[in-house]
Design a protein that fits this description.
alpha+beta; 3 helices; binds nickel (II) ion; single chain; globular; 167 residues; 5 strands
Length: 167
């Protein structure tokens, strides 16, 4: 397995809209495994292919404490429903920034697994939030887009300054 490089905001490649997966082969299975390894190593609870500069509709999530509830979702389609809830979110592409974002409390998910088999389930709470966050990445959208432009500007500046400091 290989750890993949995660792009950081404001990298313009994070704004790419991902295209559907139509080939379910060993290469896809290997890529999904690498995404999970990269997410766990980061450490994070979700990762979208967009974040590792692969613009295909693939996300991985695992909100468990024990790394035992991994979901690999190919071509996910969401139907969010229920109450709107506010929660603190962070993102592996926006390091060390945490802000409150409004999401739907529940989401009905249809997707495919790595072999192309249809998957369908309803998620709530943290899993629902995480899936909504990751699917936004596939549209080229980041959680900071939900914040005020003033706050967003400060975050971009902070990340650019930090990148400069690293060299
Ligand atoms: Ni993210």
């Amino acid at each position: 397995m290989t750890r993949l490089k995660i792009l950081h905001h404001p990298d313009p490649r994070l704004r790419t809209k991902a295209t559907p997966v139509d080939t379910f082969d060993d290469q896809l299975a290997e890529f999904a495994k690498n995404m999970l390894e990269t997410m766990y190593a980061a450490p994070g609870i979700g990762l979208a292919a967009t974040q590792v500069n692969v613009h295909k509709r693939v996300i991985v999530v695992d909100v468990s404490d024990t790394k035992s509830e991994a979901h690999t979702l190919i071509n996910p389609v969401l139907e969010p429903f229920g109450a709107r809830i506010q929660g603190e979110e962070g993102c592996l592409s926006v390091p060390e920034i945490y802000e409150s974002v409004e999401r739907f409390e529940q989401v009905h998910v249809t997707a495919q697994d790595v072999s192309g088999k249809p998957i369908e389930f309803t998620a709530s709470g943290m899993l629902a939030i995480c899936i909504q966050h990751e699917c936004d990445h596939l549209e080229g959208k980041l959680f900071v887009d939900y914040l005020s432009s003033l706050k967003r500007g400060r975050i971009s500046k902070k990340l650019r300054d930090r990148a400069k400091a690293i060299g």
